[in-house]
Write a structure and sequence with these properties.
2 copies of one chain form a homodimer.
Chain A (H helix, E strand, L loop, with lengths): L6 H10 L4 E2 L6 E6 L3 H18 L4 E5 L2 E6 L9 H17 L3
Antiparallel strand pairs in A: 1-2, 2-4, 3-4
């Protein structure tokens, strides 16, 4: 099983992950992505969904028109693992291609 | 503009909409769909996204693995309109095909 990151590891990882922060009230990381419209927001979600399914690691996410709020955590590990950091990095890369804020 | 339903119209529409209820604390309708897995949940969302985009009427929704929580309202009308009922009906039809609970 992928191991839960220590506080120091988590903070180091967040330093390199633009836009992500620790989620209030639980051990998870969050980011809100804002796109130009629903087409872009759902296009982003679709690309991420394929990655999530392939790696069997899925986000919690909420979409309202052009925004996508994401929370990542590894339930089996009871916290944040490298798998969350990897998925966050993949999301940032896709969002950057789409010109998200 | 599509007109906001009256309380009586809203309640009549909800009678025929299996699984939907009035959203607590705001004038909107909600349903949580539960699928077998992420593949089905996101497949559902993808079909609904195409309908939403075509009709220019979009849901607020949250996906966690195999569940999709939906809230529908018509922001321009300040409440629930026929457009929300139509989207809810379309969601129910797609979910039923997929065998969702």
């Amino acid at each position: 099983m992928t191991e839960r990151l220590t506080t120091a590891e988590r903070q180091a990882a967040l330093q390199t992950l633009g836009g992500w922060r620790e989620t209030e009230g639980r051990e998870a990381i969050s980011r809100t992505f804002t796109f130009r419209d629903f087409n872009e927001a759902f296009g982003f979600m679709t690309r991420v969904a394929l990655i999530a399914e392939k790696s069997d690691h899925h986000p919690e996410w909420r979409n309202v028109y052009k925004t996508v709020e994401v929370v990542l955590a590894t339930h089996d590990a009871g916290g944040i693992t490298r798998r969350d950091i990897a998925l966050a990095e993949a999301m940032n890369a896709i969002a950057a291609q789409l010109g998200a804020a």
